[in-house]
Design brief:
Blueprint (H helix, E strand, L loop, with lengths): L2 E5 L26 H8 L6 E5 L6 H11 L4 E6 L8 H9 L4 E7 L9 H12 L3 E5 L5 H10 L4 E4 L14 H10 L5 E4 L16 H14 L5 E2 L14 H11 L4 H16 L6
Parallel strand pairs: 1-2, 2-3, 3-4, 4-5, 5-6, 6-7, 7-8
Helix pairs in contact: 5-6, 7-8
């Protein structure tokens, strides 16, 4: 079993269009739906996906849930709700009534103030509903993420795209490493392995696992093999190389640690992080 925990589905041909990606962003700006994804992923062994939000429009949360009704490949959805919106709790209750709704993503590049009482209240709402918090953050935000994890120990906190570290084939940024070390003690923090090929120093991204080993070594040493999850970041990953590139790197690195470890990375850890339902 392989669960890809970070896939974007959207339809650029809808009458209302999409807020992302922009029309000049090729190859991303085209219909990106299960019908295009499955021929890429299923031959690689992918059996399920967590859809990650790609839209700030509230009703697009429902659009994905409606899509999932007839697409059993989708085992979960991480939506987009603004914690500063007065309707946050009402919308959270509405969408999380569907068991496929597994949490929300907060885009920290919007400089949402982690320390405000309002944001803390919203985190409590997520935790009380057994939902997760995805964070698109970089090294500078990792100390804040550690505080979130400390203050909300039952909340699954999922750092996206290896926190944006530049992947150069060499020892990674010391500030990023220190941030990951700061997350190590919080067992409710997980990290997605997507983003490595997009952050690589060349295009197309290198295919050799040795290029990514220094970065993966830090992640394995700090977070351990129980808190890393496979994710492709499809469709943006296509700008760096073919869909299976990240999956091949993950397989090559973690298979060295044994099949049991590889199985954790490919699906078991995501079950702990997202509590996604079995769909048969």
């Amino acid at each position: 079993m392989i669960i890809d925990t970070h896939v974007h589905f959207y339809d650029t041909e809808r009458p209302q269009g999409v807020p992302w990606p922009p029309k000049d962003n090729f190859p991303l700006y085209q219909p990106s739906l299960p019908s295009r994804y499955k021929p890429l992923a299923e031959p690689a062994g992918v059996t399920g996906v967590i859809v990650e939000e790609a839209s700030t429009w509230v009703e697009d949360n429902q659009w994905i849930l409606d899509l999932a009704k007839t697409e059993p490949l989708i085992v979960g959805f991480v939506g987009n709700l603004d914690p500063e919106d007065e309707a946050f709790e009402a919308n959270l209750d509405r969408f999380s009534a569907d068991p496929l709704y597994r949490g929300i993503r907060v885009r920290t590049n919007r400089a949402i103030p982690y320390g405000t009482e309002r944001f803390k209240e919203c985190l409590g709402m997520l935790s009380a509903r057994n939902l997760s918090l995805d964070l698109m953050a970089r090294a500078a935000a990792l100390a804040d993420i550690a505080e979130i994890a400390r203050d909300h120990p039952t909340l699954s906190v999922v750092v996206n795209h290896v926190a944006g570290v530049a992947v150069t084939g060499e020892v990674p940024d010391p500030a990023w490493t220190a941030g990951m070390e700061g997350l190590a003690e919080y067992e409710n923090v997980f990290c997605k392995l997507s983003g490595m090929v997009e952050h690589a120093g060349s295009r197309p991204a290198p295919a050799d696992v040795e290029y990514y080993r220094p970065t993966l070594d830090v992640l394995t040493k700090t977070l351990g093999v129980d808190r890393l999850v496979y994710s492709s970041n499809w469709t943006p990953c296509e700008k760096a190389g073919p869909y299976e590139l990240t999956l091949n790197i993950v397989r090559a690195y973690f298979s060295e640690l044994g099949e049991d470890v590889l199985e954790k990375i490919l699906w078991k850890n995501s079950k702990v992080a997202y509590r996604w339902p079995d769909r048969g």
